[in-house]
Design a protein that fits this description.
Layout (H helix, E strand, L loop, with lengths): L1 H4 L1 H8 L13 H12 L10 E6 L2 H6 L15 E8 L9 H18 L3 E6 L4 H11 L5 E10 L22
Antiparallel strand pairs: 1-2, 2-4, 3-4
Helix pairs in contact: 3-5
Length: 174
Amino acid sequence: MEQQANPVIRSLIERRSIRHYTRQVVEKSKINLLLISAMYAPSARNEQPWHFIVIEERHLLDLIPGVHPYSAMLKEAALAILVCGDEKLETSKGYWPVDCAAATQNMLLAAHALNLGAVWLGVYPRRERQEGIRKIFDLPPHIHPFSLVSIGYPDEQKPVPDRYREERVHWNKW
């Protein structure tokens, strides 16, 4: 198959959400590569309206499941990265969520390429999650928590499912 020959395509297809991690510490050099990769995501008018909070302190990681119901894996994770949108950095109003989504996806793909496990935890648009995260990290009003990425060395392997659906592809019209 053609996708098997191309390492980029293979990474896109093989990346899985990983929720179980070993106790191994993630090297700072790899954390920096995750952040660099996120910052190279496309953004509307190249505004790059994002900020990132690297969360390594265990007590902070352990607080998050109290405000995010699907974040139990953070109790095993070496770290998490909070992706935030900054209203003051955007002139194309309303695009910060799209830009932050692209940054989050780049980070997930970089984690896979670095042999790390990661999972996207949605914060935006759930108000209760946003407010809980805002309080834990003392975010100013113009900063909006978008997503959390749980990161660590994987302690699980997942098979690659067949997700291609021909019936969802339309050529030139519906």
